[in-house]
Amino acid sequence: xxxxxxxxxxxxxxxxxxxxxGPLMDDYGADRQRVIExxxxxxxxxxxxxxxxxxxxxxxxxxxxxxxxxxFLQHATEEQGHADQIAxxxxxxxxxxxxxxxxxxxxxxxxxxxxxxxxxMIKEDLVAERIAIESxxxxxxxxxDKDITTRRLMESILAVEEEHADDMLTFLKQFDALH
Length: 179
Ligand SMILES: [Fe+2]
Ligand SMILES: [Fe+2]
Known about the structure:
Blueprint: H1 8-16, H2 32-59, H3 65-92, H4 104-107, H5 118-143, H6 148-174
Helix pairs in contact: 2-3, 2-5, 3-6, 5-6
Bound molecules: fe (ii) ion (FE2) (2 copies).
Residues 49, 75, 79, 129, 132, 161, 164 line the site of one fe (ii) ion.
């Protein structure tokens, strides 16, 4: 490991210059506009997931519906939390979170699939989670060490999406509905 060296005087001057940028330093390594765009796509993805899980929560019926509905509701709440975290980060990066409902579905990576029966809903949710997992992992790799905070945010959300996917897979196995 190489030596950690920093010029304290330089560090202090740098911090004092451009204070209007708040948390953003001059050498912010990522393309800020592009990061904001990508985060807005992730925000749209989360919002579509909230709506889909809500629909599934209210529409879940049948013999096994109670435990599944409870899980749908919990996921809806967690996706809303992700949306909030992403929106807050966009503002920290001095961008604007896009909540426009008119273009939400178009901008989202995952789709809004209403689902017909319980199994169908669970399958669609699993697919949507797998899309989120793939795209968030890609975002995290793309950010690398250029914007560590955004990368860590996406990594922490990614971990929850993996849990969500696993929850859905567990239901499909439980109901013997994998194929
Ligand atoms: Fe999420
Ligand atoms: Fe999820």
